[in-house]
Write a structure and sequence with these properties.
single chain, mainly beta, 6-stranded mixed sheet, about 45% strand, globular
C-alpha cells in the first residue's frame, strides 16, 4: 500500500475543489487610506463570496487572559473592528480567522460560525503605532497547523499556537537577508516591506512584498532568500494579499482596487483571474499550501475523519452513506509513507461513528487513509497531532 499512497494523494489533490469557500479576503473600503470593510469568502476564480464579519457587525469579544467578555474602545487602534486591519490567517483547527490590527499587538480569533471573537492579549508581539517597522502585515497558517506572522522589517517572526484550548504566542527571532540578496533586500522598505506570506509543504514561507518581490524564508535558518519578482502585473500594482487556492496556485490581490491574479512560485508569471476587478483587499488567507505533499479528499461526500487537529489522542470516523457496506480498513501513515496505525472498521446499514485511538503518536502531520474491501481508496486526509 505504501508505494501506491502518494500517487493516489496527488490524483486526489487535483480533483479537490471547494468553489464556494476557496479562500478568504480581508477587504477594505474604496478609500485612499487603510479602512477595513469586512472578512469575506472568495471563490477560486477571484469572485467575491459571502461576507463573514464586517465593520458594522455586532462584536462579541471575550478576553482569553481575563476570561470574561470585554467592551473595547472603538476610538482607539486596539479593537476587533479597527480600520487598520491588514493581516489575517485561517486556523483550520476551529474554522477560525486569526487577525491583527496594524497598530496593535492584540490578536483576534473570529469564529466563523458563532461570530464570537477571542482577544489574545500578549507582550510578545512588540508593535508600536509610531514605528512602521514593527507593524504586522504578513500572516499565514504554517504546514504544522500553527499561525505565523512577520513584521515589516523582519525583526519579529511570531508563532501563534494552541495548547490546552489557549492561544500561545512565541517570538521565533529575527529574519535576516540571505547573503545573495544584494539590492533585493527583505528588510528594506524599497523592496521588502508589506505584502503577505504563504507556507509550503516543508513549513517554510514565501513572503511577497508590495513591490512584487518574492522571498523564501527558511524557518530553520531564519533567512530570507530573494527568489524573483512577479511578472505580468500592471505597472505600480501593489501586492497586499496572497493565498494558495484549492488548485495549488498562488492568488495575489491589491489594496488599490485592481484585478486579482494567479501564478505559480516556480515561474512567478501572473495571469489575470476572471473574478471581480475592483475589490480593495488588504490580505488573503487559506488552508492550502505550496507544493503540498498530501491531499484532504474524500471519494464519498458522507465519509469523514475529524478533528483534523488532534490534541486529545483520538479521531472519529463518520460514515452516513448507504452505498458503504461491510468492512473498511483504516491506515494512518506518517509523511514518509510508513504505516503507524491500522484498524478494521465495520459499517452497518451505511452508518458508522467510531472513535479511533491514536496510540502514542508524536506531534506532527499524518495521513489517514480509508479503503473498502476491494482496496479502493475512499478517503485520504491530513491530520495534525499536537501535544
Amino acid at each position: 500500500m505504501k508505494k501506491h499512497l502518494f500517487p493516489i494523494l496527488l490524483l486526489l489533490l487535483g480533483n479537490t475543489v471547494n468553489a464556494q469557500q476557496d479562500f478568504f479576503a480581508l477587504a477594505g473600503k474604496d478609500s485612499p487610506r487603510i479602512e477595513f470593510s469586512d472578512f469575506r469568502s472568495m471563490n477560486a476564480d477571484g469572485a467575491s463570496g459571502q461576507s463573514i464579519f464586517g465593520v458594522s457587525s455586532e462584536a462579541h469579544v471575550f478576553s482569553q487572559e481575563r476570561k470574561a467578555s470585554v467592551t473595547e474602545d472603538k476610538n482607539s487602534y486596539n479593537h476587533s473592528q479597527s480600520m487598520t486591519l491588514a493581516a489575517v490567517a485561517y486556523d483550520s483547527s476551529g474554522d477560525n480567522l486569526v487577525y491583527m490590527p496594524m497598530f496593535s499587538s492584540n490578536i483576534y480569533v473570529l469564529n466563523q460560525k458563532t461570530k464570537e471573537i477571542t482577544l489574545v492579549e500578549n507582550t510578545v508581539a512588540r508593535v508600536t503605532s509610531c514605528d512602521i517597522n514593527s507593524h504586522i502585515t504578513r500572516m499565514a497558517t504554517g504546514y504544522d497547523g500553527n499561525i505565523y506572522a512577520i513584521n515589516n522589517a523582519g525583526t519579529q517572526f511570531i508563532q501563534i499556537s494552541k495548547k490546552n484550548n489557549q492561544y500561545v504566542v512565541n517570538d521565533l527571532g529575527i529574519i535576516k537577508d540571505d547573503a545573495s540578496n544584494g539590492k533585493n533586500s527583505f528588510t528594506s522598505i524599497e523592496s521588502g516591506f508589506g505584502g503577505d506570506m504563504i507556507a509550503d509543504g516543508d513549513n517554510n514561507f514565501y513572503v511577497f512584498s508590495t513591490s512584487g518581490n518574492v522571498f523564501k524564508v527558511s524557518t530553520k535558518e531564519l533567512k530570507a532568500k530573494f527568489v524573483g519578482k512577479i511578472s505580468g502585473l500592471p505597472e505600480n500594482y501593489s501586492v497586499n494579499g496572497v493565498a494558495v487556492n484549492s488548485n495549488g496556485k498562488v492568488v495575489v490581490a491589491s489594496a488599490k482596487g485592481a484585478s486579482m491574479y494567479e501564478l505559480s512560485v516556480d515561474n512567478l508569471e501572473a495571469k489575470k483571474l476572471s473574478g471581480e476587478t475592483n475589490l480593495h483587499i488588504y490580505d488573503l488567507a487559506s488552508k492550502y499550501f505550496v507544493n503540498d505533499r498530501t491531499a484532504s479528499a474524500a471519494v464519498l461526500a458522507n465519509l469523514d475523519v475529524y478533528p483534523t487537529k488532534v490534541d486529545e489522542g483520538f479521531v472519529y470516523v463518520k460514515v452516513n452513506d448507504k452505498n458503504v457496506k461491510g468492512n473498511l480498513k483504516l491506515n494512518v501513515f506518517d509523511l514518509s509513507g510508513k504505516t503507524i496505525v491500522t484498524q478494521r472498521l465495520s459499517v452497518k446499514d451505511g452508518s458508522l461513528n467510531q472513535q479511533i485511538y491514536l496510540k502514542d503518536l508524536v506531534s506532527g502531520s499524518y495521513i489517514v487513509n480509508i479503503t473498502d474491501e476491494s482496496g479502493k481508496a475512499l478517503l485520504n486526509k491530513k491530520i495534525l497531532v499536537t501535544e
